[in-house]
Amino acid sequence: MVISDGVVKTVSCSGEHSFSKPNQERIRLLKGLGVEGDAHMGETVKHRSRVAVDPSQPNLRQVHLIHAELHEELQAAGFEVSAGQMGENVTTQGIDLLGLPTGTRLHLGDAAVVEVTGLRNPCGQLNGLQPGLMAAVLGRDEQGNLIRKAGIMGIVLAAGEVRPGDPIRVELPPEPHRPLERV
């Protein structure tokens, strides 16, 4: 099942384990690995905290996506944030990323496909970017459950180049849908 489409606003990549990622004209997604040249590319985990626990874990965080609407929300709250600063590889617009179920496939541009694995768990490094930013990307629902707003993570199912302006087609998995959990 396909739901509303969106667009790629920005793409970002860094070969170093830096928190922010510089914007690029294009990125190349590699099947089973992630973003070519990115420090988090690989079949097994590359995030330092996860490597320290178990370096053989599968990398469910090959691609980080954030919705541009989060940047707008944070800017309205007085934060100065822009695409790539919070470590995302792809900034989207027009898709409720946080409302997608686990296993959703995002078709980016002509060929690339990313399968959504879960929510990004925001970390204290956000406060290094700007004090209070970590709290600003966390919230609570009506039942008091924690809401993580810092984007979603995925794995690359099909390779391809992704550029700003590329369309995003959303393909939902078969029901029953499983809500996103942190990965």
Automatic annotation (TrEMBL):
SUPFAM superfamilies: PK beta-barrel domain-like. Residues 21-171 form the MOSC domain. It holds the Pfam family MOSC. It comes from Dictyobacter formicarum. Gene3D superfamilies: PK beta-barrel domain-like. PROSITE patterns: MOSC. This is MOSC domain-containing protein.
